[in-house]
Amino acid sequence: MKKSYIAVVVGTRPGIIKMSPIVSVLQKQKIPHFVIHTGQHYSAEMDDVFMRELGITSEVFRVSDSHKKTLHGEKTAHMLAGVEAVLHREKPGAVLVCGDANTNLAAGLAARKLHILLGHVESGLRSWDWRMPEEHNRVMLDHISELLFAPTKECVENLQRESVRGEIHLTGNTIVDALMLGYKKAEQKSSILQSLGLIKKEYLLLTTHREENVDNQKRLNGILGGIDLILNEIGLPIIFPIHPRTKKRIHQMNLRTILEKLKTKGLKVIEPLGYFDFLALLNGAKIVLTDSGGLQEEACILDKKTITLRNNTERPETIEAGTNVIAGTEPTVIYEKVILMLKKSVKRAKHPFGDGKAAERIAQITMRALKNGINLNGSPQVKT
User: Fold this and answer.
1) Which of 24, 38, 32 shows the shortest CA–CA distance to 6?
2) What is the DSSP secondary-structure string of 232-300?
3) Which secondary-structure segment (H or E) carries 206?
4) What single DSSP character describes residue 66?
5) Number of other CB atoms surrounding residue 50 within 10 Å
6) Main-chain phi, psi angles of 350, to 5 degrees
7) CB 297 within 8 A of CB 173
8) Is residue 44 predicted with pLDDT exceeding 90?
């Protein structure tokens, strides 16, 4: 086993963003490492754009055909087998996963079965909604990981409450690191607003991709109905970078006619964007409507008013900070929350996600654990 080697696992675009600062630290400090890409997301081309823009130049091992699998168990099993094969061959000393996607559970299980040190970046998040596949994944990962990198104090408290076996480390969120690096580049390199004919603070941004929404016709209809009400009453365009999953479901559910109607009212449907273009689009938006957990964080860090198109959130800190409200998927509630946020003045102290040095802490803690080992006996404690 190559005790000094660290395997960094990605497989979704949010995961690539959040792990890129860690990879950057490993690259700069010349810490031996490699990246495993599980291929969970649909577009390898789009993932390559993200990795290139975020400066990931490390050796990358890819699991093929993951996007062709449909059921959760089938996809997770396929990625588990693919990651296990890489880990068995390359024999790293530690594996780092991030978040709640099937990618991370697959890689975490592979590491656990091979007795490789496992670190969970972004641990301790809880929606308390057991219907969510993401909730299953994050809870299981937290209970099989030796190193738990919690982004906020609330996440630390969740982990302590559940008596996890691993070491708990309050590190901050790597999304802050990524935004600090990406924000300036987005301002310099992106011309997305000009190409779409947009003016800052004179448009809304919409994203939706979660299974609970886009695989449920009533909920997806509700979101589109809410967009209809907003377009009828507010008079601002809504930019909608459409996720491949959402696009597919709209076609399958025969909702194309509704989507075309919304386009005539000011909904601009565009293809998924690279990181810098999306960041520029986010920074210029007046309000963000989303079911993405990561986007709730990014919007909070950038002081963007956010409407969450779900009935709960595993990022309650954004609610407490005043930048985010829960709307669910009922059309009238979505519209009312937008009106509320348009009138609301968001004034708060520093965002709750850390100082932009989370990646450095995670790399240092991982290397220290590889060198000295860790003791999992006794009750869980927060380490410094």
Assistant:
1) 32
2) HHH---EEEE--HHHHHHHHHTT-HHHHHHHHHHTEEEE----HHHHHHHHHH-SEEEE--HHHHHHHH
3) strand 204-207
4) G
5) 25
6) -55, 140
7) yes
8) no
- Degrees to nearest 5, angle at CA 30 with 25 and 36: 70
Q: What is the DSSP string of 331-381?
A: HHHHHHHHHHHHH-----SS-TT-SS-HHHHHHHHHHHHHHH-----SS--
What pLDDT digit, counting tens, does each position of 270-312 carry? 999 989 999 999 999 999 999 999 999 999 999 999 999 999 9
For the chain, domains (ranges, CATH) are 2-173+354-383 (3.40.50.2000), 185-343 (3.40.50.2000)
Q: Where are the alpha helices (DSSP H) in 91-206?
A: 102-113, 133-144, 153-161, 174-189, 192-195
The catalytic position among 120, 209, 243, 351 is 209
Residue with tokens 């062709």: 68
Which amino acid, one-letter code, is at 215?
D
pLDDT of residue 378: 57
Question: If residue 306 lies in a helix (H) or strand (E), which one and from where to where?
Answer: strand 305-308
What pTM did the predictor assign?
Answer: 0.91
Structure tokens at 376: 């999992």
Nearest to 326 by CA among 344, 301, 343, 307: 307
pLDDT in tens, 210-250: 999 999 999 999 999 999 999 999 999 999 999 988 999 99
> Nearest Cα to 125, choosing from 97, 145, 151, 143?
151
Q: What is the rounded (10 degree) CA torsion for 193, 196, 197, 202?
A: -60
SS3 214: helix
DSSP string, 256-268: HHHHHHHHHHTEE
Q: Burial of 271 by CB count in 10 Å (0-12 exposed, 13-18 middle, 19+ buried)? A: exposed
Catalytic site includes residue 209:
yes
Polymer length in residues for the chain: 384
DSSP state of 311: S
If one counts every other C-beta atom within 10 angstroms of the C-beta of residue 251, the result is 11
Beta bridge partners, 269, equal 240
Assigned token pair, 315: 């990022």
Q: What are phi and psi of 239, to 5 degrees?
A: -95, 130
Closest listed residue to residue 365, CA positions, set 12, 180, 94: 94
